[in-house]
Amino acid sequence: MPDLTLSLTNTPEDSDVQQVQAGLAAYNGQHAEPDGYEPLCIFLRDPAGKLVGGLLGNTYWGWLNISILWLRDDVRQGGYGKRMVQLAEAEAVRRGCQAAHVDTLDFQAPDFYRKLGYTVWGQLDDLPPGHTRYFLKKTLPGPDASPAHGVD
């Protein structure tokens, strides 16, 4: 084995990141079907077009991953978060997903997700210090279930 070097950076070259991703995808391809990764984003805007909330996620290997769900303080409790999750779930089902997963902190939205049918399958205590990070999942309805309505 030739002499190898390690480098640590917080400003990686895009080409390096892409090569690592491609390498993992090639390895995964030896053991599983293609993941079918596809971004899934929903945005909530006020009448002037200003962004007041959004859901960032993706679908892969038959799962919906909700990465971020954010609403500006003045639009919380208006049902928009629920509608965004339902819209994301409906799109995930349309894409062939059977389940969803999300992680959230104790001061964010664990009860919100539980009310939407998600169950806790794991947790990390003291992340961040003094708090708990919860990991939740949900089985999604089949494609014949009635679709959620979009956010206008």
Care to describe what's here?
- This protein is an alpha+beta fold and 152 residues long.
- The protein has a domain at 36-139: Aminopeptidase (3-Layer(aba) Sandwich).
- It has helices at 14-29, 80-94, 110-115, and strands at residues 38-45, 51-60, 63-71, 99-105, 119-125, 132-139.
- A six-stranded mixed β-sheet has the order 1-2-3-4-6-5.
- Strand 2 (51-60) and strand 3 (63-71) form a beta hairpin.
- The protein is globular, with a radius of gyration of 18 Å.
- The mean pLDDT is 94.
Helix-strand layout with pairing:
Layout: H1 14-29, E1 38-45, E2 51-60, E3 63-71, H2 80-94, E4 99-105, H3 110-115, E5 119-125, E6 132-139
Parallel strand pairs: 3-4
Antiparallel strand pairs: 1-2, 2-3, 4-6, 5-6
